[in-house]
Design a protein that fits this description.
By secondary structure, the protein is of the alpha/beta class. The protein is about 35% helix and about 15% strand.
Length: about 450
């Protein structure tokens, strides 16, 4: 597969032409010479008709989509664009813009609600044991829809979730189609799923609009992501997709990231599926060795290893520290879990090193203390009203009864414990304590109105 963006930039870097355009480094340096801006011939992201369009068409053919667009600002940008398209879909069909969403949504979804003014209808599954995981089944979704005053415009699901759980996208898609709702999937952690022997990519399983963070699981620079539009999506929405991205995007996209996405097309088309097929058995062997040693693993995502540390007798941060002392840096840890993300770029020797480090840890009696049970808070106002209201920072311990505005949420995992506009209750305070949240911003909106 050709790489039009990479070829153009390489030729330009070698041309010796005087650069009287941005950026200010003028191509002086190692990587700087490949860092350009949108000028004649370089095309324009989100109004593409040249090399970028050609590269995006290559990506669309690889992922089996009607249209695939690049993001140099991660899946956060693509999530906001998805929500914009969902609102257009509601307006076109004379519907109220209702978006039903799994409660483990990334904070980008919340900021999209603030910017666009829609109010999410939160789905609480029967099994809701961690803020990082929200195992919504087709039955959970159908039951939730039946309780709504009208069917949602769209359903928003995070799959895989941060711990590596993969939802039944095919079953959820059937429920969405039954009620005329778009299925939107945050597949940020699953860009590689379409290249398995049997595709598990949401697009292949019936989703309508999907975002992938290419940089999370593919050899792409940080910030590289996709917005995928399925063939099932009406043409009027597909035609608005670039406008949806441009509404929230920078007008100065990174051409280093664009080249990385472009080069990934060639990598994906030149035997990536075979590379995955050869690597996954080695990962499965690693997982089986950990299970044999007494570890409890979470999730079914092929390239993610998530350890339930407490069942092994440790807190997650203790296991992460042991790994760090062995020169191994994990993706994420908290009191409960340690998350490790693998790819075929990890060598077999590295897998062996990881296995030795974990198996060398002596198993202890399990820690029974768990995350507080997550309850549904009382909604006082919309996320937009709360987020844009006058607010003040208070100690989390002194926030009881107040209307939550926002909190500093680290990324990873960037999943809010409570949503802007909800009332902070005793359960929220317990969650703040458990996850180490010391301060939050509360709105001056009265809790009783």
């Amino acid at each position: 597969m050709n790489t039009p963006i990479c070829d153009f930039v390489t030729e330009y870097a070698q041309s010796g032409k005087m650069r009287l355009h941005m950026p200010g480094h003028k191509g002086q340096g190692d990587y700087e010479r490949f860092d350009i801006t949108e000028f004649d011939g370089a095309d324009v992201l989100y109004n593409a008709s040249g090399i970028i369009r050609e590269s995006e068409d290559n990506a669309a053919s690889l992922f089996g989509t009607q249209k695939t667009l690049y993001s140099t600002e991660g899946s956060s940008l693509s999530i906001r664009a998805m929500m914009y398209l969902a609102l257009l879909y509601a307006k076109q069909n004379g519907k109220k813009p209702v978006i039903a969403a799994g409660r483990n949504a990334h904070k980008s979804f919340i900021t999209a609600a603030v910017l666009l003014g829609f109010e999410p209808e939160w789905i609480y599954p029967a099994d809701f044991g961690s803020v990082l995981s929200c195992n919504i089944t087709p039955l959970d979704l159908e039951n939730a829809i039946k309780k709504m005053s009208e069917p949602p415009t769209a359903v928003y699901i995070t799959s895989p979730d941060y711990l590596g759980n993969i939802a039944d996208i095919k079953g959820i898609a059937k429920v969405c189609k039954k009620y005329g709702a778009l299925l939107l999937v945050d597949n940020a952690h699953g860009a590689y799923l379409g290249f398995l022997t049997e595709s598990l990519h949401p697009i292949a399983l019936g989703a309508d609009i999907v975002c992938d963070s290419a940089h999370k699981t593919l050899p792409v620079l940080t910030g590289g992501a996709y917005l995928h539009i399925a063939t099932s999506v009406p043409e009027y929405l597909t035609n608005q997709a670039e406008q949806a991205m441009a509404l929230f995007a920078s007008t100065s996209p990174s051409y280093l990231v664009l080249q990385s996405l472009d080069a990934a097309n060639k990598y994906l088309s030149d035997g990536f599926s075979q590379e995955l097929a050869a690597f996954i058995p080695a990962v499965n062997n690693l997982k089986n060795s950990l299970l044999k040693a007494g570890y409890t693993l979470i999730g079914t995502e092929p390239l993610k290893v998530t350890v339930n540390a407490k069942k092994y007798g440790y807190y997650g941060y203790e296991i992460a520290q042991i790994l760090s002392e062995n020169g191994i840096i994990c993706e994420f840890y908290d009191a409960d879990f340690v998350v490790m993300m693998l790819s075929p770029k990890n060598s077999l020797d590295e897998l062996l090193r990881l296995k030795k480090a974990l198996v060398s840890v002596s198993k202890k009696n399990g820690i029974t203390e768990g995350c507080p049970h997550i309850k549904k808070p009382v909604k006082i106002c919309s996320p937009r009203e709360a987020f844009l209201s006058a607010c003040r920072e208070v100690s989390a311990e002194d926030s009881l009864g107040k209307v939550f505005a926002s909190a500093a949420i680290s990324c990873p995992p960037a999943v809010p414990l409570i949503i802007s506009g909800e009332q902070i209750d005793e359960n929220t305070i317990e969650l703040f304590r458990y996850y180490g949240i010391k301060k939050c911003r509360v709105s001056d909106i009265p809790a009783c109105r």
